[in-house]
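Predict structure. Input: Carbohydrate-binding module family 13 protein, 129 residues.
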Amino acid sequence: LNPNGDTSMCLDVQDGVFTNGTPVQIWNCNGTPAQQWDLNWGPTTIRLGTTGFCLDASTADPSNGTPMKIWDCLDVPQQNWISTVTPAGGIVGLANTGVCLDLRGGSHTPGTVVQAWQCVQAETNQIWT
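Output follows.
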C-alpha cells in the first residue's frame, strides 16, 4: 500500500518486527515481508503476507490519532476494514466507525506514523494506492 500514489513509500511494520503491538509506519519501499500487505477491495482484514498478523486499530472505535499496529489476525472489529476505490485512489476505513487509515500530517518522510482519523472526503492523507 502506498500513500497518495507515492510508489516510493510503502505501508511498513516498524523495524520489520513481527510481534503483537508493533507500530505501522510508512517507509521507503524495499519489498521486504514488512511491506507485503494483502488487501482485497471491499470488507476485509488487511493481512501481512503469510505472517499471521493483521493491521489493527487497537479498539473497535479508535479516536483521532490512534496509531496503527499489527496484531495476530482475529475476528475482531478493530481488524475489520472496508476499502473503497475513488477517482483519487483507495480509501481504507474501519467498518462501522467513520474512521479511516490516515498518514499523520500527510508527511511522506520515512517513519511517519499511520493512524486512525475521522474520514474526510478527498483528504490526501487518507488516499492509498
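The mean pLDDT is 92.
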